[in-house]
Every structure is written in structure tokens, then in C-alpha cells.
Design a protein that fits this description.
alpha/beta; six-stranded mixed beta sheet; 9 strands; 26% strand; globular; binds adenosine-5'-triphosphate; ATP-binding; ATP hydrolysis activity; ABC transporter ATP-binding protein; nucleotide-binding; ATP binding
Length: 235
């Protein structure tokens, strides 16, 4: 499973609702190659999180196909050691300390790393013995990120990694992303921030109302994007 795209979706659709009446993702085709940083960009409700959760194996497609490393991402046992995941809201805020949380997530992942190293990467060394439940919103996001990058996974999914972070924490997060990229990790993330996507992504996918309307490098998107897509950062 070393050849071929790391992540591939073909005619992927996902519907919500008792009768599947709400189409959150519509016939989406996607290929992400080894070492790429791919950013899904779009407004609230565009379907970015639903797409990511389906690629992660957390949702079963209504129709279409998803493969990760050539296999089914719902096959957790084979995928887990190779994939790090940062959810939009992990809800992880228990009685464990920050250091214990990272250590536990690390041991579940099956990858090797060092708690002190990872604490340093996300600038949480000073909070290492604080209970995770007592962290600020931005600190919780950094803890979630730390758990996703533990052991430098081959593939990392990040759902709005910088939302709620102050500028310095954002820079720190992108530095950490650059570090795992230089080690060869493939990264798929969602964001609302055009300026982050254009600065860091190899390719950007523009989602609107469940449809992946365009994708490409920034240059490809700027030359000839359809007029109904508004390339404006949301703030
Ligand atoms: P945001 O930027 O706000 O996180 P998003 O692009 O990640 O948005 P999704 O969270 O994937 O979008 O949501 C896509 C659509 O599916 C939205 O219209 C949302 O209301 C709907 N949706 C999401 N989760 C559910 C659910 N559990 N049940 C029903 N509809 C849902």
C-alpha cells in the first residue's frame, strides 16, 4: 500500500436525516498524494467536517467510495497506527492531566514519541500537570492537536486546527505542521481562513453546499474561478 494516493474518494455522498433527506456531501471526488497538504476551504455548513469524518472512517458514506492507504478507513485496527486525527471538538476534557492525556492518546496510537517533546511542540510544557478539563479553549485545541501529531503519523486529519487560537499559537501550530510535513506526513485539513490555506496548502478544495466546486493550487484557483465563489476571508 505504498503506491497510489494516500486518500481517495470517488463519488462520495453523505446524507443526514431520518430519511437521508439532507445532502451534506454530494458526489465528491478527491485524491490526495503522499506528502501533500490539502486544505478544504468553505463557509459554515459547506460539508467540510462531514467530508473529513467520512475520510477518517468515522462515517459510512451514503454512497460512493473512500479509501485510505488503499483500504477501508473504517477498518480502525489497520488504519490507527498510521493516522492522526484532530476532531473539531474532541470533547476530551477529563480528569487526566495534560501530560497523562498525551501519553494515553500516544499509547493508544501505537506510535512511539516522547511526552515532553510533544508538550514542547504545542507549548503546553507549563501546563503539563494541569487537568485537561481546566484548560482554556485555545489550550484544549493545542492538546487535541498534540494528540493528532503524536509519533508523526503518515497521515494527519485536522478539522479547523487554528480556530480559537491566538496569533502566536497559530504560528506555533503551523510550525509544528511544517515539522511533520518535512518528515513526510500527508495532511488534510479544513479551514475557514483563506490566508492560511493559500500560505500553507499545496492544493485547496473549495466546498459550497456539499459540492467540491473547484480544486487546485492557489494559482489555478485565482485564474478563472467561477463567479459564484467568493474568495474572501470571513473576518
Ligand atoms: P463548519 O465550517 O460550520 O464547521 P462544515 O463545512 O464543516 O461547516 P458540516 O459540519 O459538514 O459543514 O455540515 C454540513 C451540513 O450538514 C450543514 O448544513 C449541517 O447543518 C448539516 N449537518 C451536520 N451535522 C449534522 C447532523 N448530525 N444532522 C443533520 N445535519 C447535520
Amino acid at each position: 500500500s505504498t503506491a497510489g494516493p494516500v486518500v481517495e474518494a470517488a463519488a462520495l455522498s453523505y446524507n443526514y436525516g431520518d430519511r437521508g433527506e439532507f445532502q451534506a456531501v454530494r458526489s465528491l471526488d478527491l485524491r490526495v498524494e503522499r506528502g501533500e497538504l490539502y486544505a478544504l476551504l468553505g463557509t459554515n455548513g459547506a460539508g467540510k467536517t462531514t467530508t473529513l469524518e467520512t475520510l477518517e472512517g468515522h462515517r459510512t458514506p451514503t454512497s460512493g467510495k473512500v479509501s485510505v492507504f488503499g483500504g477501508d478507513p473504517r477498518d480502525r485496527a489497520s488504519i490507527r497506527p498510521r493516522v492522526g486525527i484532530m476532531l473539531q471538538d474532541s470533547g476530551f476534557a477529563g480528569d487526566l492531566t495534560v501530560a497523562e492525556s498525551i501519553g494515553l492518546a500516544g499509547s493508544i496510537s501505537g506510535r512511539e514519541d516522547d511526552v515532553r517533546r510533544v508538550l514542547g511542540v504545542v507549548d503546553l510544557t507549563a501546563k503539563s500537570s494541569t487537568r485537561a478539563g481546566m484548560l482554556s479553549g485555545g489550550e484544549k485545541r493545542r492538546l487535541d492537536f498534540a494528540m493528532a501529531i503524536w509519533g508523526t503519523p503518515e497521515l494527519v486529519f485536522l478539522d479547523e486546527p487554528t480556530t480559537g487560537l491566538d496569533p502566536s499559537a497559530r504560528d506555533g501550530l503551523w510550525d509544528a505542521v511544517a515539522e511533520i510535513r518535512s518528515a513526510g506526513s500527508t495532511i488534510i485539513l479544513t479551514t475557514h481562513y483563506l490566508e492560511e490555506a493559500q500560505k500553507y496548502a499545496d492544493r485547496i478544495g473549495l466546498m459550497n453546499k456539499g459540492v467540491l466546486e473547484r480544486e487546485g493550487t492557489l494559482e489555478e484557483l485565482v485564474t478563472g474561478h467561477p463567479s459564484h465563489i467568493t474568495l474572501v476571508a470571513p473576518h
